[in-house]
Amino acid sequence: MSTLEPDEGLKCLAWRIWLGISHLIREGEIDWKGVQKLISISGSITPSSLPETYKTKPFDIISEAESADFVATLQKRPQVRCVPHLVAAQAAATPEAPAVADGDEILTYRELDEQANQLAHQLIALGVERETIVGICMDRSAQAVICALAVLKAGGAYLPLDPAYPIERIAFMLNEAQPRVLIAEQKMAEHIVAGSWQVVIIDSDRTQFDRQPLTSPDVEVSATQLAYVIFTSGSTGQPKGVEITHDSLLNLVSWHRREFEVTQRDKASHLASVGFDAAVWEVWPYLSAGASLHLPHVETRVSPELLRDWLIEEGISISFLPTALAERVMTLEWPRQSSLRFLLTGADTLHRYPAAELPFELVNNYGPTECTVVATSGRVLPGDGTNSLPTIGLPIANTTVYILDESLQPVAPGKSGELYIGGAGVARGYLNRPDLTAERFIRDPFCSESGARLYKTGDLASQLPDGQIAYLSRIDDQIKILGYRIEPTEIVAVLDRHPEIQSSVVVAHGSSCEEKQLAAYLVMRNGTIPAAAEVRSFLQNELPEYMVPSIFVCLDALPLTANGKVDRAALPDPDPENTLRDHPFTAARTPIEERLAKIVTTLLSLNEVSVNDNFFLLGGHSLLGTQLIAKIRGAFGVELGLRTLFDTPTIADLSTEIERLILARVESMTEAEVERLLA
């Protein structure tokens, strides 16, 4: 320990930090309480009044406890400015810098800010004020970013609604949230049921916005105000809205910018659907830092190969990909040098470690929607822990994590317990659900701060010797598929309303995140056997596509445990005899069909497949589709596009297309090429 007095050392440290603090205040990175403490500590200190050694001594000139207390004070979550203020500051500082690139459309920060200001004034004229919810039903686009920013500038909270959701589900969310205004495009607004909300048609009401001022509205946005509401799957059979405030959002933004050293030179990707909370994380940390946001084409965002090429060509420096997609992208060949600094992933269990030669760092992240997207984060090193799965890292700034037993007592390191999350990211609660809020958001018994709460995640975890957290499993029946959090009870609630279904249960089938599919086990009334398409169509009226099971198994009765609960472990595997089909089973009839059927059954972990079965209705999705196309290329030497797979999704139709391409290739060959091929 140094012989210098701790108070003198603290003054020295205060001065050294003070020298570089001005720009951090402008960026909203430091709490005013920390600034006030600096002032009180430094007093009238000047460089000339400090001994020369004070100017160069490292941090250990003060005690560890005092240093930790001082740094913690400085890193308190920002309360001076909110996200819309930070974006406006960037627009003022670099007005002509690119903010959002959506295909050929490139918005500068000036254009982003001015268009958001005009829409914000229009929203205020329609009655939007503090805590007012505004629905945004639009696809991922530059225009959707403008709308979300406009809502925040108006003092409201935005509610993202994915246009891909069934109309009935969107209607439920609107009726539950009761927004003052709904922003939508003409093509979508025509299908939405009318309600108490006013509808703004963003692509036809432009002349109204153009008359509004270009300047920011004079609206106070405080840290405790609601920033956004996102609906997630609900265990009660209906989706529930999670309320996130500005201080929680700003903590995520500030941590992200510090952790990944985001600057105006960075280019970030925006791939997540608007209804997925990852979209929040993809947008605001970058626009608040003056970086640019880039949106890939729809087909690019689901193809690992196309996405890798796009990331390289666009010069993307930071990208978030959901786990299944990240694992595929990691296995591809990459150039030795790349602009990509960080590949962020999360939303499912990570099973792969990165190869040492990859030109970027992989960062695994964990966090429920109820804790503002990210609660823990950690870099995944190449070849780390080959006999164990990658961890979910450590808590992010201003976040506490506890692993507790049923009595809310901490378990010993290495032992499993339920994961509880506290701190700055914890949501206000569930919209209009005080009962569920009280159940899942409990008083924090380990924190003396008034009103401190913990979120009960329902996830099992353990703490490793180095302090990192290992995710183990769910305590309940919740399922995660392709990053989406799914409550099976919500699907069962819809299935059991089918007039021919007596009872049902929904489980995950398959092990890895790519193979995982939803399987519904059904007990029918009066022995009726419906077609899978009929049950699927019934579900699609109320549930988004990712919640519709790929497999339907018909049973005489559901197996039960001794206490009368459904015994999920005793459910039989799907097989040709118990699985509902759309058409009678037809075996492969040609060599091409036989080879293609083998590829599909292996890819989808099926015992067999009919030549008339639809690849996407068997559990295939865009990511698996790109793998199927690659295997077809290797097996038959022909090139299919993802669009072709969507248009011809059965083995019978695909075989016909493959045969056509092979014949066309042969017909274009010279005699010498044919002879070499046959040799």
Short overview:
The chain is an alpha/beta fold.
Major pleated sheet? 5 strands, mixed
Strand order in space, largest sheet: 11-12-13-14-15
Mean pLDDT: 84
**Which percent range describes the beta-strand content?**
15-25%
In DSSP terms (H or I, runs of 4 or more residues), the helix count works out at 23
CATH level-1 class of the domain at 79-246: Alpha Beta
- Low-pLDDT runs of 5+ residues are 1-64, 76-80
Number of strands: 26
Shape designation: globular
What's the CATH architecture name of the domain at 79-246?
A: 3-Layer(aba) Sandwich
Classification by helices and strands:
alpha/beta
As for the CATH topology of the domain at 79-246, it is: Rossmann fold
> Gap between N and C termini, in Å?
80 Å
Radius of gyration, CA atoms, in whole angstroms: 28 Å
Helix content: 25-40%
Distinctive features:
Rossmann fold, GMP Synthetase, Chain A, domain 3, 5-stranded mixed beta sheet, globular, 23 helices, 679 residues, alpha/beta
Task: Describe this entry's structure for a reader.
It is a single chain. By secondary structure, the chain is an alpha/beta fold. Among the domains are: 6-74, no CATH class; 79-246, Rossmann fold; 487-570, 2-Layer Sandwich (GMP Synthetase, Chain A, domain 3), CATH 3.30.300; 591-667, Non-ribosomal Peptide Synthetase Peptidyl Carrier Protein, Chain A (Orthogonal Bundle), CATH 1.10.1200. The protein is built from 23 helices and 26 strands. α1 (6-19) packs across α3 (32-42), α7 (109-125) packs across α8 (142-153) and α12 packs across α13 (278-287). The protein is globular. The N and C termini lie far apart (80 Å). The model is unreliable at 1-64 and 76-80 (pLDDT under 50).
